[in-house]
Fold:
Amino acid sequence: MRTHKIAVIPADGIGKEVIAAGLKAMEALQARCGDFAMTFEHFPWGSDYYRAHGRMMDADGLERLKKFDAIYFGAVGDPVIPDSITLWGLRLPICQGFDQYANVRPTRVLPGLTSPLRHVNGPELDWVIVRENSEGEYAGHGGRAHRGFPEEVGTETAVFTRTGVTRIMRFAHKLAASRPRKLLTIVTKSNAQRHGMVMWDEIAAEVGREFPDVTVDKMLVDAMTQRMVLNPASLDTIVATNLHADILSDLAAALAGSLGVGPTGNIDPEGRFPSMFEPIHGSAFDITGKGIANPVATFWTGAMMLDHLGEHAAAKRLMTAVELITRDPANHTPDLGGNASTAKVTDAVCEAIRSSN
Ligand code: NAI
Ligand code: MG
Structure:
């Protein structure tokens, strides 16, 4: 039997609630499919761990995670501990330490969900955003000087490397080529940023020549926001820098109906290290402990994880179950305008998996 070793890091806030839900769906799937097994090892890292031990994760954390096939991650962030400690102490060290340079974010309007765009009711919006996840504006380059004085200065330097841009462009072209429309939009800002972004455009054009069957167009990031709203059907696969894609993918999630349904994979395409799968939302302090967090993003990211592990049949079975239950408004959590609990949606998905053929 095929066995996959999964590291589970629920971390903070609703991360704990949605990962518990996701694991139930994974167990139902294993029982229903019967041809693969997953072992789960839980890591208690996060803000509570920080309160107790003064660190977000153990010093040998990355070393211990290395032996897993994938990481199933909840969300990190705490109302009183700064994000510079929480995010930079757990999520970012994993992304950077494991060189998960491609952040993949599919967006669709699931059956039964309502997009805030009145001309969209499903098929018009079916995108995958590829976010450069290792450098760019979030490279961490910069500094502060003369703190507290009137002449204080802070810099935040975006870093683009030929290696980094080439590999993300190649990944995005390959992904676009694997989708029916073979359509890739390169997001840029080379009109105003004339060094790194111009290099970004040039490398995109070079890599594009390796993929003659992919149709490529180029959009400035500001105009891109308009196009996503006014003409969503004109887009399919999208590649953007770390910052641009961060912003565009929150817009994408909102256009698909809720932040609570958006999944993501932080992928090391070379497979040297485990990739990490998580819902795109954060720890949502405002609803933590209320039992109403939407687990759909976590189910969907679980399907991405299964695909990554080669369990395509199980991934499809899981998404079919999700798309079956979202059709019924009784399974919509409050973020989708309903009043279902996390537990109710989870039970519905597990039942749909058990009775799937
Ligand atoms: P957030 O995503 O936690 O919440 C934004 C809004 O969406 C809130 O009103 C929340 O209730 C709602 N929401 C999010 N996920 C939901 C779900 N599954 N079901 C129902 N409603 C949901 O973003 P926010 O409030 O900006 O950040 C809270 C903390 O999370 C911060 O510390 C932030 O840095 C962190 N964060 C962590 C991320 C990660 O771990 N990858 C990603 C985004 C934020
Ligand atoms: Mg974000």
User: Anything to note?
Assistant: The chain has two domains: 1-101+269-357, 115-256. The chain is about 40% helix and 20% strand. The mean pLDDT is 96. Residues 246, 250 surround magnesium ion (ligand 2) (CB under 6 Å).
